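Input/output pair, single chain:
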Amino acid sequence: MSRRFLFLLGILVMVAFRQTEAQNVVFDTIGNTIISADTIVKEEKTAKTTKSKKPHSPQKATIMSACLPGLGQIYNGKWWKVPIVYAGLGGLGYLAFSNYSEYQSFLHAYEYKTGDLPDGVTLSEHEAELANRYADSQLQTYKESYRRDFEFYSILTVAWYGLNILDACVDGHLYDYDISDDLSLSIDPYLRPTATPIKMPQYAQVGLSFQLNF
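Output:
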């Protein structure tokens, strides 16, 4: 009696296992191939993830950095570049402004010294001190020097602003660029025996073998 009971129990377990296995398998009527249910679920999740991911726009990153420096870098996910962008703009802008201020001071002092100071313009204490300290030629020399420095740092400021836009554009184009994990370079020793046309002992070609896998 116990043997029959164990035999029937074994048959029920096998039937239940078969039914469970059948539920996890889907038959493809087109190619008559078997696809597991887990594979279908994974493919559906991958498709949903691909659809939900918004495409990255290099043009948008460029326009954002042109409107507000550093904004395109934030859009590209390069947050660490924002302090560099503003440090360059702030430093170069300060140098341009300070040289322009000195240029104006020496200009007014020179115009006061030569009698060409426009009506309604009064000298500040700093400008009056410059006029009393330096001669006409010295004031003109300093004035031209500060003017050249102002123009130089102004050009650098504009160039840094343009570099900020270019950086956002390049990072935007490289945002979706993917380097495969299969990319590898292997270097192995190379040894191949070679026979000469005439009957002479064989000699070996020794070197290095480079193999690049994509």
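The first strand starts at residue 25 and ends at 27. Residues 2-52 form one domain.
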